[in-house]
Amino acid sequence: MSQLSNIIRLSFRDYSHEWRMSGCFIFALSSVLAPMMILFGLKFGIVSTMVDGLVENPSNREIRPIGSGRYTEQWIEDYRNRGDIEFIIPKTRALAATIQLKSESATRILSTELLATASNDPLLAGMQQIPANYNQVILSQSAAKKLKVEAGQQIDASLARQFQGKRERVHLPVTVIDIASAAVTSRNVAFVNLDLLVATEQFKDGREVPELGWEGDSDGAAMRTFPSFRLYARSIYDVDTIVADLEKKGVRVKANVAEIETVQSIDQNLSIIFWIIACVGAAGFAFSLGASLWANVDRKGKELSVLRLIGFKSSVIVLFPVLQSCYTAILGWLMAVLIYLAFEQLINRFLAPRLNLDGTLCYLLAEHFFWALALTIITAIISAILGGLRISSIEPSDGLRDL
Amino acid sequence: MTVVYSLKNVVKERINDGVGYRLQVPDIQIKAQEHVALVGHSGCGKSTLLDMLALILHPDQSDDFKLDPVDGKHYDIDKLWHRRRQSRLSQIRKQHIGYVLQSGGLLPYLTVRENIELPRKLLNLADDDSINSIARVLGINRQLDKLPGLLSAGERQRAAFARALSHRPSILLADEPTASLDPITARKIMAVVMELIKGLKITLITASHDWAHVYKMDLRTLHQEAAAVENGRIYQSIFRD
Predict the structure, then answer these.
(1) Which of A151, A392, B58, B158 is the most exposed place for a label (fewest CB within 10 A)?
(2) ipTM for the complex shown
(3) Cα–Cα distances in Å, from A234 out to A239, A307, B172?
(4) Are residues A309 and B58, on separate chains, in Cβ contact within 8 Å?
(5) Chain A CB contacts of B91 below 8 Å
(6) What are the Cα distances from residue B235, in Å, to A314, B44, B209, B211?
(7) Using an 8 Å Cβ cutoff, are A148 and A106 in contact?
(8) What is the model's pTM?
(9) Mean pLDDT, chain A, as a whole number?
(10) Do B122 and A3 touch (CB under 8 A)?
(11) How many angstroms separate the CA of residue A332 from the nearest CA in chain B?
(12) Size of interface A-B (CB pairs under 8 A)
């Protein structure tokens, strides 16, 4: 323990005594590490900004079925329980999924598309309330504008059918609980509870909806199926797998695969470029540090021999260059971080606006800094082992008379 | 008096392609508190023998190599070398041996005080006034907080003696400690050191090529006899009383 604490003290004293030489090592390391960090920051920032853009827009994660099918509630439930799916909800036939809306403030009756919604709907992310019963609705901005309504107002929803030769119309008072942003859709859409969507289809098909007092033929015990669904993957990287899985099951679907593939390909290509540069840089750094340490052991042969003469064990003296490498690694990393942070500010403040890029062009997460430090220390220690091996091969009496 | 070093047929060779140098020690015994000088011209193997005595150089051959630094401690160095017990040898060295190099061998990044303290720290000896008192005796008490690079050659050698003696070893080895100094300074330093080691009852083995100086100091001398052997291809150096 005494030898260990003394060698730590001595290696640091020597390191600070030879501050010019140590400074050169630190500069050499940071001049390799800082550009790698900037490069990785750019790669990570650019790709993350693109990925964020794709993720923020739910339509990029939407997987749309082509044509109509027969999807049971159980089928929908099974997909809802998958980890790679964020949201799935059934859709009824397009013709049956329309409703007429009328407000007191507007003269026109607006024919509106109905979309079922539920909590976690990516289209309505951030909304405080989600329609929970037959009498609640969220309107798209286009529909709200045309109806001249605001959140909290009550409007009249009605739907008509031809039933047993007669034309019938039913009315349902609904409250506009919120209005979706314009980015969600430009169409006239009313987001409703799934029950209301199903009730609308049932009514139009001439069947009864006892919960709303709408008369018609009895529903019987037939298993309900849906012709379509609205599905969003959890991330853009899950889209491929879900598409492949659905197509395997005979469900033809459409997704923004091309755009996602472009981002993934940019990510992969930038990663390859980064790792090639990083590997060449790291190898260069490891060899230069190793060679410097090797030469340093020769230069310090006498001093290290004196330490042996005084009574330090060889195994402890081997730590001398290893510790000094660690000091270089930590200080070099620190300097590289400072250089990186300065460049990050420059790039994000001055370059990103010129390129008309939304988001951050260059940034790193805290864990990236940690990994850079860990890799630098490991590289430095591996390089220092060269110096250590050199020390262990020197006879204790060698070099004593050189100083 | 206890025999501190006992060497029989100890050989160290540096031979390449049959040409080189061989140091032989047929039979040497050095007693406790003796003051011995290894005398011979430059390159005759004095430093090599001192390194072997300091346990930092492995003899190539040895019938007997024993060290009894203090009463009750007996070490078979030959066995330790053969078993490659480097750590044990380091331990014996740091506890019982002080070594002064020709150039001092002070660590340039430590102050004189820290250099002198180092052997004591390795042995976990208490911080008493011994550093100051040994520095006073050697006349370097005002240089303790300076780096070695700021000292004169004479002061550096005094500091080297202080470091070698700070942990109170029973053996002091000195390799031409005053060779780089002017004769007056050399005599002054050696006079102080001799006083000190007599007081501390330390065994001294010093190497020197200066016969006159050795005779003045009244040291037991181990002479070197040189001969060219094996058709003149090997320079053989033998140390004996």
Answers:
(1) A392
(2) 0.88
(3) 8, 62, 78
(4) no
(5) 311
(6) 32, 9, 18, 22
(7) yes
(8) 0.69
(9) 87
(10) yes
(11) 22
(12) 79
